[in-house]
Write a structure and sequence with these properties.
- The chain is mainly alpha-helical and 198 residues long.
- It has one domain.
- It has eleven helices and no strands.
- It is globular, with a radius of gyration of 15 Å.
- The N and C termini lie far apart (33 Å).
């Protein structure tokens, strides 16, 4: 089971969906859709950021801060997730497009942008924890981390239809003209130190 399948499988758990639903005061069915779209969007954003040597190096440093996170029990992890850390991750991964992305995700999932924002700051540390664990397990350098995010992006695009998760994630990250958001460059340079745990 690959990382994306692991996350989606765990987030399909009834108790996990109820827990997340209670945290943002909405139905588990809406949380499931928002989780699928939101996590896919964050994965693609990380992939775009790691497509340059500088971005890959910055992400690698950030993952080193999360490589010892215990993400073996995703439901338990989400109960104790550091939302302050999550907010910082969202800010630097999505940059100036954060609000726009939340609004687009909200419209697609039938939730409010505020609810989406609260879910994303729970998902972001989880994603970095899973990626960090994988980095440590496989002893990945910056090139390996870049290849890892590219591979996950390819999985998102594996739906074989115009409605693939990758296409949807890209539509959330791009502006109306279809060009990539310049705000996604926020991960460069200072990301590693900003994500450093206290």
């Amino acid at each position: 089971m690959n990382m994306m399948e692991l996350i989606m499988d765990q987030l399909s758990n009834k108790e996990t969906l109820q827990q997340l639903g209670q945290s943002v005061k909405t139905k588990p069915s809406k949380v499931k859709k928002a989780a699928t779209l939101g996590i896919s969007t964050l994965m693609e954003a990380l992939n775009r950021n790691s497509n340059t040597p500088e971005g890959a190096e910055a992400l690698t440093k950030a993952l080193e801060q999360h490589q010892d996170d215990d993400v073996s029990d995703i439901q338990g992890y989400l109960k104790r997730v550091d939302t302050e850390d999550g907010a910082k991750i969202i800010e630097h991964v999505l940059g100036s497009k954060s609000k726009t992305v939340q609004t687009k995700l909200a419209k697609k999932s039938g939730m409010s942008a505020d609810q989406i924002g609260k879910l994303l700051i729970q998902f972001a540390p989880l994603i970095l924890g899973l990626l960090g664990n994988k980095k440590k397990e496989d002893n990945l350098d910056a090139t390996g981390v870049s290849n890892l995010t590219s591979g996950l992006s390819s999985i998102l695009g594996g739906g074989g239809s115009g409605g693939s998760l990758l296409n949807l994630a890209s539509s959330f990250l791009d502006d109306s003209s279809g060009s990539s958001s310049s705000g996604l460059g926020g991960i460069l340079g200072s990301l590693g130190s900003l994500f450093k745990k206290k």
